[in-house]
Design goal:
This protein is α+β, with helices and mostly antiparallel strands. It has 16 helices and ten strands. It is globular, with a radius of gyration of 30 Å.
Length: 442
């Protein structure tokens, strides 16, 4: 049976290095988005190599030419075969993928069943692309899948630090302690980031057990976890939104200002926010205009009335503002909020990403320093809490339970305390009146 390869894909070899035996690299190009260069682990003298053709020269001086060229040809065929197979099942074609193909070619035993945690983590992530979230009955979001990329990257750094590749059976409470220590002291990650990595590694190990792999039972222990810490965040109040509306500056700052206001009155995540256009505006049978969009994270449809502040922007521009990148939005909203027209500079306790180290830090800062894209979403939920029923807020934010909403805005479920006290106080007052009436009757 012949194998049909993508017309767009090309695989070539080239040399890199200045020594007498430079490394042979493989280069895979597929369309305009895929251009991967990875070391093969083989070396060769430039005297025996055709730079133009990317093959071993036809020379009698190189006695092992035929065997070596066969290895190169077979690896190239292996890359094509793997590319065809993995593109079909949605696997991400990147450098790690190409390294794995080379590793499996050199060590066929890995092809049968990988026991490495890093490979199983990658396999689990790729499987998620075709799975359905059991709670939402929707495909698993891209953001959730990207979280596994982050965990993989940190695991890879840890393995280089320890100079060891971990098998699935190596994952025990000792690994747990060392990995947490590394992420905390070397990578200086926040507690919640560490907790997420531990949770995902445990998930992969549990999945591996279900597939018949032998795991260390310690990974199933309740001790194999990492406690989370309360999330510190700030919100933009309605009074501060009024001050933001007064901002006057460069056009790109005005554009950012408008998106900030729209974000605070829609509760959109920034990725969904920047996709809004007039096509998202619909009208009810009663003639009321509203915004409809589908959340990229949950695939849930959301309808939200158009606030007067948003309507002013639409009337002024004729459309939504110009889309900007997440990075620019996060950067420029801080400039808008610290501007002399706005002055959101109260000292507050919170967390931010250090602009120099890019690491999370906790402390007391001027409020504008802590404002980021997600502040819009939290502000929407917080500003409407106790003004609208929680279910209405949840219909916009996408939270599926009231507990999730309350955790999100930092509230606790203690309203019942006020209700009980109010009833008991009324009962007590009624009892006093009855006693007084009885005394008068006597």
């Amino acid at each position: 049976m012949s194998i049909q390869f993508s017309i767009m894909a090309t695989v070539k070899y080239f040399l890199r290095g200045q020594n007498e035996q430079p490394n042979i690299y493989i280069r895979l190009r597929d369309g305009i988005n895929t251009d991967l260069k990875v070391i093969t682990g083989w070396v060769i003298s430039p005297n025996y190599w055709s730079i133009k053709k990317g093959v071993i020269k036809d020379t009698s001086e190189f006695q092992d030419k035929i065997n070596f060229q066969n290895k190169l040809d077979k690896l190239k065929l292996k890359v094509f075969e793997s590319l065809n197979a993995d593109k079909g099942n949605g696997t991400e074609i990147n450098k790690e993928w190409l390294k794995t193909v080379i590793e499996k070619y050199k060590n066929p035993a890995l092809e049968e069943k990988s026991e490495y945690l890093s490979q199983l983590l990658t396999d689990y992530k790729n499987e998620m692309k075709v799975k359905i979230n059991l709670k939402t009955k929707k495909p698993i979001s891209d953001a959730t899948i990207r979280n596994f990329n982050t965990t993989f990257s940190r695991l890879e750094k840890f393995e280089k630090y320890k100079k060891k590749r971990y098998l699935i059976s190596d994952i025990d409470l000792t690994f747990h302690a060392e990995f947490i220590k590394y992420e905390k002291n070397v990578l200086t990650l926040a507690q919640n980031s560490i907790s997420k990595d531990i949770k995902q590694i445990k998930t992969v190990c549990t999945d591996a057990k279900d597939k018949g792999y032998t795991i260390n039972e310690q990974v199933l222990s309740k001790k194999f976890n990492a406690p989370t810490e309360p999330t510190l965040f700030v919100t933009i109040t309605e009074d501060e939104i009024k001050r933001i509306k007064l901002f006057k500056g460069a056009d790109y700052y005005k554009n950012t200002r408008d998106w900030l206001i729209i974000g605070c009155w829609t509760g959109c995540r920034v990725g969904d926010l920047m996709q809004l256009t007039n096509n998202n505006i619909l009208t009810t049978p009663k003639g009321q205009r509203f915004i409809r969009y589908t959340q990229s994270k949950t695939n849930k449809q959301v309808d939200i009335p158009i606030h007067s502040d948003i309507q002013e922007i639409l009337d002024r521009l004729g459309n939504f503002p110009r889309p900007i990148s997440d990075q620019r939005f996060n950067e420029w909203i801080k400039d808008v909020c610290k501007h002399e027209d706005v002055k959101i500079n109260d000292l507050v306790h919170g967390t931010r990403q250090n602009p120099d180290t890019h690491l999370k830090e906790v402390g007391t800062f001027e409020k504008w320093q802590l404002i980021r894209s997600h502040t819009c979403r939290r502000s929407f939920a917080t500003n409407h809490y106790n003004k609208l029923p929680n279910k209405l807020i949840m219909a916009v934010t996408g939270h599926t339970t009231e507990r999730m909403l309350l955790n999100y805005i930092g509230e606790t479920e203690n309203e019942h305390i006020d209700d009980f006290l109010s009833v008991w106080e009324n009962d007590k007052e009624s009892e006093k009146k009855i006693v007084e009436l009885n005394k008068k009757a006597d």
